[in-house]
Amino acid sequence: VELARLEYLVTFGIVPKNPHTGYGYIEQGEEIENGIPLGHKVARFMEKPDRERAEAFVASGRHFWNAGIFCFRVDVLLSALREWAAEIAEGIELSLSGIPEKDGVIELPKEFGRLPSVSLDYAVMEKARKVAVVPAPFSWSDVGSWSSYASLLPSDAQGNRVVGEGLLHEAEGCVVHSPDRLAAILGVKNLLVIDTPDALLVAAKDRDQEVEGVVAELRRRGHPTHLLHRTVHRPWGTYTVLEQGARFAIKRIVVRPGRALSLQMHHHRSEHWVVVSGTAKVTQGETERLVRPSESTYIPAGVTHRLENPGLIDLVIIEVQCGDYVGEDDIVRFEDRYGRA
Predict the structure, then answer these.
(1) Domain that residue 263 falls in
(2) What's the pTM?
(3) Which stretches make up the MannoseP isomerase/GMP-like beta-helix domain (predicted)?
């Protein structure tokens, strides 16, 4: 904190426990004193090293893992952004100026999403003149891979670590994450088995850093999994895709109290809503009505409609979509409280 008061941009360095090749490193420079030792200037930031360089970093005693945890005065950071990352600074200031708050939700403009996607290290910390590093007085893991996540879990006598229900027979050193259904693992060693509602990952444990390559391939193919989870968050609540086929989709929709979906229309699909809990206010064309638990309503394709929750508890409905096309982009919004087009 004292270094931050002295207008330093401070980063916390983690004393390395091993020559990890999945982290960036920080090399400390000369000591900073103000009557008492406060920390060290940063000599340089280094990207993820190979094994040989990582071992040299650990042996030197001058290098820390880069945790990406900072302490600085707001005015000092903004000044550094304006000097070293002017495009980002201007974009942030424009994005945050005059943003309306609607129903407790702040929706950033699309311009914010067009700003360069760079780390604070690259944009500012590696360029600024007054950057300091202090050893972190706490344990840390970035939980940036399934192996690092697994290291936080208890293991059995064979070194297996399980979240959820796992049946393991003659398996050693495996990591199993299957919270929603039984996973049976037979006669294998050092495997990752990660079962989520979105996708199943099976990989060699020592290759977990390569998952980003899988994501890149999904992106190249235009697969929706790299963009949307099975449960999607919106300003008004969430929806979860329960089942989907070529001409249908079944969703569980939760609308928070006082929130509303946009006034909208779909060209290619109809929708059937069944209220599970709460009370729905349904606008359909020129009419409005309340729909209560166990009641339902039908919205034909091409009809303007809106779903609202006028109550004090969550509105939960099951939606069945049918039509030639049930993609999320089949939507025309006429009015939206959250400024979405």
Answers:
(1) 231-335
(2) 0.67
(3) 170-218
